[in-house]
């Protein structure tokens, strides 16, 4: 049997009953919530994996810096990337090395390597290198509530370090603190130690500039070649690199001992016993910088005549023509070989006054500029 419908016949679409509408709405809302929950879970899982990927032992890396905790979970070191933020999507971790390839300014070379030299010490090698010649690399280290020691000689020396005001980063080089009161003195190290058993050592290869902000209780570590006395090694691009090692330990003594063994060589020989037992006679006491060969020999004769003990006789200031020379002034000292022979015969050992300054009139000044 067949059923024939008229050509103009249109089936009537059956509407859902009023009882079904709330149920369909609930199903649709539940589906949306389920999809949202799945998306949120996936995002959380990805974020958790990323957080784990950017986490290394006792250190948490963030886009704008990192913090280091001790074994008790206390934050002992905090540093911020002042010149740019890391693009965390470019970061990955392989073994003990966590590396990133981009920052907000573009491509870079960045890594943190975890090193555990002993059970009581944990260290991190940090390197940030720009791949362009212009921008400086600058990181900010916060003092927090710790006492800090080290750095450079200052005109007013506080122990622990106490700085006032604000100073933009300036070249970390020796200067004359008597003439330039806010400069660094003749003794300086790229090393700082805190009362919370954290220490940082800036690599010697860094074109290092140092600044500070007393309000933020922070030191500025900067690497740059532009408008700087530092020059890149021959044949290398002037890409600034800020590299350093941060170490934390169980106590101040152990971390300082480790850093000293790692970075600061101890004397390789024992000084002569006589240097401790007997006096060192200095020409400065009588002659200041007006010293010459005749005065030196007469000085030695008097010491011997009155039978004083002597470990060394020291030839002090201006036995050269200019600061930075290593040759005797031929006018003041016409026969140095004979002079030393006579002093040795009389039982004297001779030391020379040496300083870190080089005068522009010295022949070695050009050598220093060239190198």
Automatic annotation (TrEMBL):
Q: Which Gene3D superfamilies match?
A: Aldolase class I
Pfam families the record matches:
Glyco_hydro_31_2nd
Gene Ontology terms, MF aspect: alpha-galactosidase activity
The source's domain of life comes to Eukaryota
Q: Cite the entry's keywords alphabetically.
A: Glycosidase, Hydrolase, Membrane, Transmembrane, Transmembrane helix
The GO annotation for biological process reads: carbohydrate metabolic process; skeletal muscle fiber development
Instruction: Spell out where the chain crosses the membrane.
Output: 23-46
Report the coiled-coil segments.
none
The Glycoside hydrolase family 31 TIM barrel domain covers which part of the protein? 282-361
Question: Which family would the database say this protein is a member of?
Answer: Belongs to the glycosyl hydrolase 31 family.
Q: Which PANTHER family match?
A: GLYCOSIDASE FAMILY 31 (PTHR43053), MYOGENESIS-REGULATING GLYCOSIDASE (PTHR43053:SF4)
Q: What is this protein called?
A: MYORG glycosidase
